[in-house]
Amino acid sequence: LPIDPELPLKAAVLFEPFVVGTRGVKGLKQKPGDSAIVFGAGIIGMTSAIMLDWFGAEKVMVVDYSDFRLANARRFGFETCNPATEDLKAKAIDLFGSQRGYPDERCGARLYVDCVGIGAVLKNFAALAPRNAELAVVGVHKEETAINWTQVCFNNWHIHGTGEGANEELLPEIVAMMKSGKYDLAALVTHEFPVERIEEAITLAAQPDQAQKV
């Protein structure tokens, strides 16, 4: 794919994760005034959050257990929550307001992106999502997870997978975002290694409290 020579290297290297995040986000029927919650502050979670903001989301909150990654998310202007130390539902209602739902009160954020791929994320979605909420499942779930289909039915939730879009189709939109200067994308690249230290780099990349994009 042709990469615009005006793009800084640390932006260009993020094209592939931005494709993943963009696919998931574009599958959501985002409307003016919508707010969103992204589960996961890794590189896919951050690209998803940035593209939600780029497409006009009113507010975006990123949820993760890594304070290191959440601190980086706040640098981009996103709200954050660490469920290990904060009440996720209370914070979401305080930030997005509340709505009626089944079987109890829900927060006002309508769009959700799962960039983690664990059952706890779907439980959190089920506790937060109001009627007509949409969930993009971008994280790869390794285990089967139970879903309360009565909640899906009565809340009229819409759940879809990682979305569609060839790299070539998404390239112009992603490059436009990168060239806009709105986001300090270099801040997502936390470490650099020479290629001969690739094993060390891959090991570090798996440490959420130390690295984001290596």
Care to describe what's here?
The chain is an alpha/beta fold. Helix content is 39%, strand content 12%. The protein has nine helices and eight strands. The protein has helices at 9-12, 15-26, 43-54, 67-75, 88-96, 119-128, 149-155, 167-179, 198-205, and strands at residues 36-39, 60-63, 79-81, 98-99, 106-107, 111-114, 134-137, 158-160. Helix 6 links the parallel strand 6 (111-114) and strand 7 (134-137).
Helix and strand topology:
Blueprint: H1 9-12, H2 15-26, E1 36-39, H3 43-54, E2 60-63, H4 67-75, E3 79-81, H5 88-96, E4 98-99, E5 106-107, E6 111-114, H6 119-128, E7 134-137, H7 149-155, E8 158-160, H8 167-179, H9 198-205
Parallel strand pairs: 1-2, 1-6, 2-3, 6-7, 7-8
Antiparallel strand pairs: 4-5
Helix pairs in contact: 2-3, 2-8
In short:
The protein is of the alpha/beta class.
Helix content: 25-40%
How would the global form be characterised? globular
How much of the sequence lies in strands comes to 5-15%
Rg estimate, integer Å = 17 Å
> Given the helix and strand composition, which structural class is it?
alpha/beta
Q: Strands of the largest sheet, in order across it? A: 3-2-1-6-7-8
The biggest beta sheet, please?
Answer: 6 strands, parallel
- Beta strand count: 8
Could you name the ranges where pLDDT drops below 50 across 5 or more consecutive residues? none
Taking all residues together, what is the mean pLDDT? 96
Order of helices and strands: HHEHEHEHEEEHEHEHH
